Amino acid sequence: MDARFKSRDIERRSLDVDGLKRSFLEWLVYSVGKDARAATRRDWFHTVALAVRDRVVDRWMDTTRSYYQEDAKRVYYLSLEFLIGRLLTNSLSNLGIMEECRQALDRLGLSMEDVVDAEPDAALGNGGLGRLAACFLDSMASQALPGYGYGIRYEFGLFEQRFENGWQVEYPEQWLQFGNPWEFARPEVLYPVQFYGRVEEFRDSVGERAYRWVDADRVLAMAYDTPVVGYGGETINTLRLWSARATRDFNFGHFNDGAYMKAVEQKILSENLSRVLYPNDATETGKELRLKQEYFFTSASLQDILRRYLQHHSSFENLPNKAAIQLNDTHPAIGIAELMRLLVDQHALRWDDAWEITRATFAYTNHTLLPEALEAWPVRMIERVLPRHMQIIYEINAKFLNRTKARAEGDNARLSRLSLIDERGERRVRMGNLAFLGSHKVNGVSALHTELMKQTVFADFHEEFPDRINNKTNGITPRRWLKQANPALSELITTRIGEGWISDLSQIAALRDKADDVVFREEFRRAKRKNKKRLAAYIARQTGEEVLVDSIFDVQVKRMHEYKRQLLNVLHTIALYNEMRDNPTVSWVPVTKVFAGKAAPSYHMAKLIIKLINDVAKVVNHDPSVHDNLKVVLLPNYNVTAAEIIIPAADLSEQISTAGMEASGTGNMKLALNGALTIGTLDGANVEIREHVGPENIFIFGMTAEEVNDLRASGGFNPREVIASNPSLKRALDMISTGAFSPDDRNRYHPIVQALTDGGDHFLVTADFADYCRAQDAAMQLYRDQEEWTRKAILNTANMGWFSSDRTVGEYAKEIWDVHPVHPNHDGEGFR
Ligand code: GPV
């Protein structure tokens, strides 16, 4: 070791058991302020996290310094959501000191599990979109890519879900309550962000027309940085989250009125901006505070990006060569108007130059085609909240529409579809159109979704700009979703093929041969069984329900949404329950139906489906006539931490959305990688999963996206006819509608029955029911042959290598961002 450092400095970096143990004790006493006798589990978590953080800081600064010294092109991932979950296991695992830490804690008489469990789950996201952002951060850091995440440091993450009497009830998620040991507050990194006010026109120094935004309210955005530890610990990137702070300037006018307290209160209220995450998944609320959140973090991030750029450059023409900005859906799309404003109003660039730079810098990812999720802000709201941006949007629109062919050809219908402004009804700004126009690349998140983008929402834009749309099928990080969540399977894999798969998941293909190896199959089953036992214990703890470890763990975990069709699964559950009761002498394959997922608090239908699942569970689980062959559980408060326990234990993965509606799905990838067989529709990335794992190793059922489209277009679908011709479906629906599961309120499920019948069954649950049951039967029959089931499970794991987010991020880096790995120099001052 280098003698330049005092022993304490060395200690802070040491990665062996003794060094870790000494540093834990030092942190406990001097930073947490407790001795070992008085320390709680939470104190120990903070202690360990702070000690681990010490091992990261030097390499973090080295990484940042290397990017700076090389003036490397950076990619900035702007996202309103980062669903990162816990960080302790992740950091230890990526640093490669998991075992050392376990032993150090052991010597202190502590269990690693207890310490790990004291960490709150950072739920700064709703579902797939936010988790994708977190997987991308891991992949960028693990591949030495200069990538930054920018978002909001919500004080309250996604609500905590509890069931009261079977109904979902929401509680605030106070993840910051006891402090966050991973983050570094940066009170000096502070940017003003404005709202409201008006625009003044004036003549600039050369007599040109110019604009300034005046009389606006101001808030400050303050940075909090969290290190993002890449696999191997070589690259440590930054996730920078903004928190709203009141400005200190006072309106003296108010004081003269004696309204001092009022003035101060207004300032405090401005901090509400970063208070809470909106709990909607793929639906928009159109609330002003949401628009302000979007602008708040986007503006602060752009100011920060320009400041960093200007350290090396004195003009802006090189910005696209030094910065790539990825818009995670349209939530940060106002950034296009904001960059134009910064370049034109504040840095005096000519409009056309600014536009060229802006377009070359931004790229946009679309994550849904659902019309209710396509953001469209009322013009009147933007005019009021962001008056200068509204002008800029009009200007972008006018210049664009003037140049289109449609105008030349007098095709007004097409022109109005291309417009940034939706003129039907209340005038609105179509954020998707703005994002498309202001980006050099636009991508979908699975092959099917990208094709549908070209055919539907962006058909006109695709014709106008045929090279702009491209596909980047989503991926998941194998570090969190295999190595950390499933140590049993990970260790088994490593004994056979080494550990190269962790940073190059394509290597997992080497397991294909092992599917025919009877010893390997036995060990694979043993790993799965271990995970199922762990889940069974979790289920017992959470719900009080005992489930059979040897039953099929049939898992549907995701947000509650009609298009995801938890109802289809419930109807099959009821049909299976009836069959089991009718045929008690048959030797049934035992099934455990595992559900988990949150409903948006204002989504009444989704909340009613939650209640239905709980009601069905109550009846089925306590009916002795099914002899424990069927259990239904709905686990509360699904989050990243719960997913890490549930996913490795799954046998069957439910991916049953109405074809054409799930943009990609990423849970489907996590489950298949962990050796679950998929039962699914040809939707989103399921299509590509089928291509990779092979059609014989997946249960595909139901209508295709094209068939769905045709059936809906024909207007001829009649759910009543389908129900009448399927006795098991009819019986299940009759039971729901007559109160078999809700004797206390027989009409409770009227809205559900209504939606599936006279409501026209928009999500085609009844249309796909029969084929779904056929696929379920096939799965149950296959499960009887454990060798054959295991063979297919292994082939799923072995064939999922392509779905690593390393592959996805690599494609973005090459085809959209043009960023390259920068390997940090760790030899300099400050490194051991
Ligand atoms: I837009 N998605 C999400 O989680 N929240 C959103 O607000 C929107 C999309 C999801 C899609 O529903 C998934 O199909 C997809 O896999 C995921 O985004 C990541 O692309």
UniProtKB/TrEMBL annotation:
Spell out the GO cellular component terms annotated for this protein, sorted alphabetically and separated by semicolons.
cytoplasm
Swiss-Prot/TrEMBL catalytic activity = [(1->4)-alpha-D-glucosyl](n) + phosphate = [(1->4)-alpha-D-glucosyl](n-1) + alpha-D-glucose 1-phosphate
Q: What is its EC number?
A: 2.4.1.1
The cofactor required is: pyridoxal 5'-phosphate
Q: Name one GO molecular function term.
A: pyridoxal phosphate binding
State any GO BP term from the record: glycogen catabolic process
Spell out which residues are annotated as carrying N6-(pyridoxal phosphate)lysine. Answer: K670
Please provide the record's keywords in A-Z order: Allosteric enzyme, Carbohydrate metabolism, Glycogen metabolism, Glycosyltransferase, Pyridoxal phosphate, Transferase
Instruction: Classify the source by domain of life.
Output: Bacteria
Q: Does the keyword Cell wall biogenesis/degradation apply?
A: no
- Describe its function: Phosphorylase is an important allosteric enzyme in carbohydrate metabolism. Enzymes from different sources differ in their regulatory mechanisms and in their natural substrates. However, all known phosphorylases share catalytic and structural properties. Allosteric enzyme that catalyzes the rate-limiting step in glycogen catabolism, the phosphorolytic cleavage of glycogen to produce glucose-1-phosphate, and plays a central role in maintaining cellular and organismal glucose homeostasis.
* Family of this protein: Belongs to the glycogen phosphorylase family.
What name has this protein been given in UniProt? Alpha-1,4 glucan phosphorylase
Q: Which organism is it from?
A: Azospirillum ramasamyi
